[in-house]
Design brief:
Length: 478
C-alpha cells in the first residue's frame, strides 16, 4: 500500500514551503512537490520569491543603492571618493550566493521538520490525489487527505514585445544582465518595473519607462503616487505615462520600440528592453477536468475566503488565487489553511496586508487610500508629516517623502497608512500592528516613540490626524 499523506502541497514558493513547514510543526504528515530544477537537475525549493523574485531583486537593489550612494551622496557628508566603480559579475555572484543560501536553508528546514520533498510536476486528480511526473518521465500518484495548490505565477508576456532572453527580457532576465545597458527601456511602470528600472538607473543606464495607463501607480494613494513620481523624476527615471507599446523590432543588436501616446506614434531605440507588465497565475495543466476545481475569468483558481476550492479537501493559496501577488500574503494563506486542516479556527485578515515598492525611497501602504474611502462614502481625517521635518531623516540626508495617516472621522480608528520615504517598508509595519489591534490614531499619538528615529514621522502623522503634530505647523481647524 502506498503511504497516505495528511497534506500534499504543490509548489515550494513562500505559499507552499511555509505551509509545508507549518503543517509538519502541527504534526501532519506532509509532502511538497516542486518542479523547479537547478543547473544540475537537483530540486530547487523557494519558488519565484527566493529564486527570481523578492530576494534577488532586493540583493541588486541594495548593491545598486550603495553604489549610487557612494557615487552621488557622500560629498554632503564631507567624504570624497575618487571614483566609484561597479563590478557587475561580483554583484551578481553576491546575489546568487544569497539565493543559494536561502534555498538551501529551506531544504534544511524540510529535513529538520520531516517534510518530504518530491521532485516533479504535480497535477491534482479527482479525490485529492496528486500525480507527479519527474524529469525522466516517471509517474507516481500520491494519496492525500488534503491537497494545497501553491503553484504561483509567471510573468505576463505581450504580443508586441516577445521575450527573446537576449534583447527583450522579462523580470528574470533583468536580474541577470551582465553589463549595464547604455539605454534601457522598461514596459510597465508598476512595482516590478520600478524596482528593476531603479537598479539599472543607479548603475548608470538611461532608463525610459513606458506605461500604458495615464495614471502613475493607480493602486496607491494619489498623494503618495504624486510625491513618488516627483522623486523618481529627480533620480532621472524617465517615466512616460499614456504610452502603450505596440511593436518592437531587434535591429543590429538594439531594440526599436514603437509606442502610441496622446502625441501620436513614437519610436525609441534601446540596448535592452525589460517587459514588466504584470504576472499571471500558473494554472495550466494543474488539475484534471473531473477534479472539481474551477478557474475564475482571469485564470486564478477559484477559492472562498478560507482558500477552499470547489473540490472537497483541495485548497489553493498564494499568487495562484485572487488578491495581492505578494510573498507574505501567500505564506499567511498557507499557514491559515494548514491550521484549519489541523482543526484550528484560523482566518486571514486581508484588510491588514501591507504592500511595498522597494525603490529608494520605499513606498509602503496598508489599508485603504483616501480615494477608496471617499468612493465608499466614508468620512475620514488625514494627518500628513513630511520627512523633511524629521531630525533623523535630515541627519541621514534622506528626507524625501511623507507619511499619510488616515483615520475614521467618527471613531478615530486607523483605516490606512501610506508612506513614501526612507525605510517605509519597516515603518508601515508598526501601523499594520496597530491596525491589527484595532488602534485609533490617538492610541498611536499617545505612544512613546524613541528619538531620534524615522518612526517619529509615523507618530507625528498620527498626531496630525487631529491637528496635534508638534514639528510642523498644523492646519488651522475652522
Ligand atoms: P511562487 O513563488 O511562484 O512559487 C510557486 C512554485 O510552484 C514554483 O517554485 C513553481 O516551480 C512551483 N510549481 C508550479 N507548478 C507546479 C507543478 N505543477 N508541480 C510542481 N511545482 C509547481 N513579493 C513580495 O511580497 N515582496 C517583494 O519584494 C517581491 N518582489 C518581487 C520581485 C520580483 C522580480 C518578482 C518577479 C516578484 C516579487 N514578489 C514580491 C512577488 C512574490 O515573488 C510572489 O508573490 C510570491 O513568490 C508568490 O508565492 P507563491 O508561493 O504563491 O508562488
Ligand atoms: P504591475 O502589474 O504592477 O507589475 O504593472 C504592470 C504595468 O504594465 C501596468 O501598469 C500596465 O498598465 C502596464 N502595461 C501593460 N501592457 C502595456 C503596454 N503594451 N505598454 C505599456 N505599458 C503596459
Amino acid at each position: 500500500m502506498p503511504e497516505k499523506y495528511d497534506v500534499v502541497i504543490i509548489g515550494s514558493g513562500p505559499a507552499g514551503y511555509v505551509a509545508a513547514i507549518k503543517a509538519a510543526q502541527l504534526g501532519l504528515k506532509v509532502a511538497c512537490v516542486e518542479q523547479w530544477l537547478d543547473d544540475s537537475d537537483n530540486m530547487q525549493l523557494g519558488g519565484t520569491c527566493l529564486n527570481v523574485g523578492c530576494i534577488p531583486s532586493k540583493a541588486l537593489l541594495d548593491s545598486s543603492h550603495k553604489f549610487a550612494d557612494v557615487r552621488d551622496n557622500l560629498a554632503v557628508h564631507g567624504i570624497t571618493v575618487k571614483k566609484a566603480d561597479i563590478d557587475i559579475p561580483a554583484m551578481l555572484a553576491r546575489k546568487d550566493q544569497i539565493v543559494s543560501q536561502l534555498t538551501g536553508g529551506i531544504t534544511g528546514l524540510f529535513k529538520h521538520n520531516g517534510v518530504t520533498p518530491i521532485s516533479g510536476v504535480g497535477k491534482v486528480l479527482v479525490g485529492a490525489k496528486v500525480e507527479v511526473t519527474d524529469n525522466k518521465g516517471n509517474v507516481q500518484v500520491l494519496d492525500a487527505s488534503n491537497v494545497i495548490i501553491a503553484a504561483g505565477s509567471v510573468p505576463v508576456s505581450i504580443a508586441p514585445a516577445p521575450i527573446d532572453d537576449e534583447h527583450i527580457i522579462d523580470s528574470t532576465g533583468a536580474l541577470m544582465l551582465t553589463e549595464v545597458p547604455v539605454r534601457l527601456g522598461v514596459i510597465g511602470a508598476g512595482v516590478i518595473g520600478l524596482e528593476l528600472g531603479s537598479v539599472w538607473r543607479r548603475l548608470g543606464s538611461e532608463v525610459v519607462m513606458l506605461e500604458a495607463l495615464d495614471e502613475f501607480l493607480p493602486m496607491m494613494d494619489v498623494q503618495i503616487a504624486k510625491e513618488a513620481g516627483k522623486i523618481f523624476k529627480k533620480q532621472g527615471l524617465d517615466i512616460r505615462l499614456g504610452a502603450r507599446v505596440i511593436g518592437t523590432e531587434v535591429k543590429k543588436g538594439k531594440v526599436e520600440v514603437t509606442y502610441t501616446s496622446a502625441g501620436g506614434e513614437h519610436t525609441e531605440l534601446f540596448d535592452k528592453l525589460i517587459v514588466a507588465v504584470g504576472r499571471r497565475p500558473r494554472s495550466e495543466d494543474l488539475f484534471s477536468s473531473d477534479s472539481g476545481i474551477t478557474l475564475d475569468e482571469r485564470g486564478f483558481i477559484y477559492v472562498n475566503d478560507n482558500c477552499e476550492t470547489e473540490a472537497p479537501h483541495v485548497y489553493a493559496v498564494g499568487d495562484i488565487v485572487r488578491g495581492l501577488m505578494l510573498a507574505h500574503k501567500a505564506s499567511e494563506e498557507g499557514v491559515m489553511v494548514v491550521e484549519r486542516i489541523a482543526g484550528k479556527q484560523a482566518q486571514m485578515n486581508y484588510d491588514c496586508v501591507p504592500s511595498v515598492i522597494y525603490t529608494h525611497p520605499e513606498i509602503a501602504a496598508v489599508g485603504q487610500t483616501e480615494q477608496e474611502l471617499k468612493a465608499d462614502g466614508i468620512e475620514c481625517k488625514i494627518g500628513v508629516f513630511p520627512f523633511a521635518a524629521s531630525g533623523r531623516a535630515l541627519a541621514a540626508n534622506d528626507s524625501d517623502g511623507i507619511v499619510k495617516m488616515i483615520a475614521d472621522a467618527e471613531t478615530d480608528r486607523i483605516l490606512g497608512c501610506h508612506i513614501v520615504g526612507p525605510s517605509a517598508a519597516d515603518l508601515v509595519q508598526q501601523v499594520v500592528i496597530a491596525m491589527e489591534f484595532g488602534s485609533s490614531a490617538e492610541d498611536l499619538a499617545l505612544t512613546v516613540f524613541g528619538h531620534p528615529t524615522l518612526s517619529e514621522a509615523v507618530h507625528e502623522a498620527a498626531l496630525a490626524v487631529d491637528g496635534q503634530a508638534i514639528h510642523i505647523a498644523n492646519r488651522k481647524k475652522r
